[in-house]
């Protein structure tokens, strides 16, 4: 199912999708609540009737479903037959590699046969004159995570479902788990500082190694670049003051030093447990990513306000 149009307030945005199986199990969400429950029920009913193709449904969230949103949504319910299983797998694999667009001619009670084409959409989905155009996937922001200790591992897992492509770097090969999420690459280096130069412009750098001296060297290299979206270091305010003093003596400018986020994580979460720290840092990274995309504020305005001692 795909939300194709929205008017007024709605639980999710245009392009939100979910997949429902014939047994009622599902992945993704179009907002939860009464709307999602009713759409799942309708999708299962269509599958029970052996329906095929694209079905368009509209909902007034207040009158129809009793939801407080009060808006109106249009939802495409597509029944995907088993003959399109291979195509679905191909598109799912392609989506892991980055965004792409498809086009399909919609015919009554016929499966949707998509083809990939070049499209820069104003909206993620559009149906005009019988032609369905869709945009799939999301551009993942590159993120270099230095340190495979307890907090590094927790943060790696917290970033698994988020729009980041993680390069996970450590000097200790045996600290990497045998399996990691698909958006994570494990990199073993004797001197991780060498990896800073290869981090893409606009990337995010998070430093949390087992060695404070190494942390300082990594932060030094990252801040001197001046083209990174985020440079964060785990640690207390005391650690930050010590590192800043040493970097200033080493010739790092005040303008560069002001870009360092330390302590890391959003305010209000004070726990020292790795999963809680990871959740706090992941939330901060999302905040910075959103404001970088909107270009409404400087890269670090939100990140630097009120971070706890992580």
UniProtKB/TrEMBL annotation:
XdhC- CoxI domain mapped to chain residues: 2-50
Pfam families found in the cross-reference section: XdhC_C (PF13478), XdhC_CoxI (PF02625)
Domain (XdhC Rossmann): residue spans on this chain: 143-285
Superkingdom classification of source: Bacteria
Name of this chain's protein: Xanthine dehydrogenase accessory protein XdhC
């Amino acid at each position: 199912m795909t939300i194709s149009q929205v008017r007024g307030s709605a639980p999710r945005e245009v392009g939100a999708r979910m997949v429902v199986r014939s047994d009622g199990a599902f992945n993704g969400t179009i907002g939860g609540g009464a709307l999602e429950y009713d759409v799942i029920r309708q999708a299962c009913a269509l599958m029970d009737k052996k329906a095929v193709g694209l079905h368009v449904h509209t909902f007034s969230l207040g009158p129809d479903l009793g939801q407080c949103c009060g808006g109106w949504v249009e939802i495409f319910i597509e029944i995907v037959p088993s003959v399109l299983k291979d195509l679905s797998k191909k598109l799912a694999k392609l989506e892991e590699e980055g965004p792409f667009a498809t086009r399909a001619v919609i015919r009554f009670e016929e499966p949707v046969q998509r083809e990939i084409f070049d499209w820069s959409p104003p909206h993620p989905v559009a149906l005009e004159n019988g032609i369905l155009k869709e945009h799939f996937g999301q551009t993942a922001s590159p993120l270099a995570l230095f340190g495979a200790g307890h907090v590094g591992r927790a943060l790696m897992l917290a970033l698994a479902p988020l729009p980041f492509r993680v390069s996970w770097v450590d000097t200790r090969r045996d600290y990497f788990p045998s399996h990691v999420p698909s958006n994570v690459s494990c990199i073993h280096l004797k001197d991780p500082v060498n990896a800073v130069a290869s981090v893409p412009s606009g990337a995010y750098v998070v430093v949390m190694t087992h060695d404070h001296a190494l942390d300082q060297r990594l932060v030094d290299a990252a801040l001197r670049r001046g083209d990174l979206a985020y440079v964060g270091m785990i640690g207390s305010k005391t650690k930050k003051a010590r590192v800043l003093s040493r970097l200033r003596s080493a010739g790092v400018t005040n303008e560069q030093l002001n870009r360092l986020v330390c302590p890391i994580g959003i305010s209000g979460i004070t726990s020292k447990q790795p999963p809680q720290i990871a959740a706090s840092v992941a939330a901060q990274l999302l905040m910075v990513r959103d404001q970088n995309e909107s270009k409404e504020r400087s890269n670090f305005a939100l990140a630097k306000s009120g971070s706890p001692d992580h």
